[in-house]
Amino acid sequence: MAMLSVQDLHVSYGAIKAVRGISFEINEGEIVTLIGANGAGKSTTLNTVAGLLKPESGTIEFDGASIAGVQAHKVVQRGLALCPEGRRVFTQMSVAENLEMGGYTRSDAENRETLERVYDHFPRLKERRGQVAGTLSGGEQQMLAMGRALMSRPRLLMLDEPSMGLAPILVEEIFSIIKQLNESGTTVLLVEQNANMALSIADRAYVLETGTIKKTGTGAELLVDDDVRKAYLGG
Amino acid sequence: MTDNAPKGEARPVISATASKGRTGAYRRLPMPARYAINAILVLVFLVVGELMIDGGAISRYQSTVLEQVGIYIILAVSLNIATGYLGQLPLGHAGFMSVGGYGCAIFIVRMMETLGVTARDFVTGSPVCGLLFVGGLLVGGLCAAVCGLIIGIPALRLKGDYLAIITLAFSEIIRVVMLNIDSVLGFKLTGGAAGLTGIPGYTSFLNVFVVVAVVCFLIHTMMKSRHGRAILAIRDNEIAAEATGVNTTYYKTLAFVVSAFFAGVAGGLYAGCIGVLQPAVFGFMKSIEILVMVVLGGMGSMLGSVISATFLTILPEALRAFSEYRMIVYAVVLILVMIFRPQGLLGSYDFSLSRVIERVLNHDFPWGKGGTGKGSAPDAADHEPSETTDAEEVSADAGR
Known about the structure:
The structure holds 2 protein chains of 2 kinds.
Chain A lengths: L3 E10 L2 E11 L4 E6 L5 H9 L6 E6 L2 E2 L5 H6 L2 E4 L11 H8 L5 H14 L1 H5 L10 H13 L5 E5 L7 H16 L3 E6 L2 H7 L2 E6 L2 E7 H5 L2 H7 L3
Parallel strand pairs in A: 3-8, 3-9, 6-7, 7-8
Antiparallel strand pairs in A: 1-2, 1-4, 4-5, 9-10
Helix pairs in contact in A: 3-6
Chain B lengths: L6 H15 L9 H25 L4 H26 L7 H23 L3 H6 L2 H29 L4 H26 L19 H20 L1 H11 L1 H6 L4 H27 L9 H14 L4 H17 L7 H15 L12 H9 L28 H8 L3
């Protein structure tokens, strides 16, 4: 059975329909990516799964239980963590405090343990643990946002545009960490505009266009797909 | 005197002692010691104040001003929860204050009738009066908290200017209700425009001081707890807070209600201090006055609120000799502060006596810091991580 299963999801912002009938599935242990242009509905889909937005219709099931319309802070408790677009770290708190906030739903003992694991994945955060998050570089803030999401010990980690606004070298670093996280047992749902990078690490991918799914396949298949190449990979 | 000390010579001595103290992590005071230090400090202030009043160094008039200082400190510190910590902009604090004031005063006056206590008993200070006083403040606070809940649930769906307008409108509604409820519904409750009179003078320097200390302590501990951290996270980034598992609706409402509760307590003290409650006092200018104190002191700084509430209460009194010009001076001071310190007097900095003592213990001074080079400020931004205490220290640092 799929870990996360989304069926015929519709989401609107007032009169504007952002997502029109999307269905997709994620199995335990996979990296699945949603790619597509600006306004295709990728972030909307992710935010709806995370509970930040309410679906208009459709079902969202996590481990067989419906989470459609469940508030975000309760979704976190079920083992789904969202690392939101644009990082959104707590700029006035230190790195350590940000991570501690990430473990808000967990006990102190669990957090101490998770913290070590997060620092293993992101040694840079350990070096900077006392620094105020607002003064970190973009790449470090992205790492912090991911680390904060990991602090809730998610079984499914949802990443919204982790490469946004980062230098190519940092993008590679972030993606290798995503791969690493996946290998250590976290299922990943990745939303990306950087289709090339996303497809190269993804097990499976869905291509979104104006709120619907246009294509689906394994990462390797879509990387060589003519339509995808033309539309998202620059020829 | 420190500036001219030849640094080359002074250094080795300091660093020798400092590195001895610094073999492990930065030395910290245990929590009981911190509480003890603060308790002693508060007691010293209280005893000095009481002695000065008894000895006649502080006149009757001056001690009334001090009571008002305390009342404004509570108002500013409580509004700071909603503005500084939660990051919202409510403009109806005077409304909560008036609900609390009326609630407390009516409760005490009615209970006096049933218990047969006279106003004179409050001067001599019988134990019943002490109970009435505490009960009255709690009733006042609870009335205000209920209003805070009623207004908070719908209002907190809005942000910024919209929230300001809705809370402003709410406090005007309160004022008009207090003004007219008697004549419209035929109650004998608030006394209408003539005001509620016959309130015994249950407010004194001593009990204002104690209430201020208790309120500051409660707010401080709340902000240091995980609840406080959740509130700070909402201010920093509401979406991220929700995504990390904070129930943002609950905590926004909680902060709002707690803020209203303490405003109500301040209102109760105010009623006993002035002796008369008139709805006109709790107009919209009162809310602005309190907001100005918070902004002037620095949003999110408790000490800032305390200092600016003290300063802005005493300033107009001290300037009484200049009669009409005093409001101009008041305004000029505000304008100057906002131009030169837009973040408020203290920004978001909060003073901690125990931190100062820790610095002295560690020979760590802002001027020519002793020792190993690193670590001038043991703030949240830079604390030596000692593995096990790390998490605790972080949470201990949160409320600042």
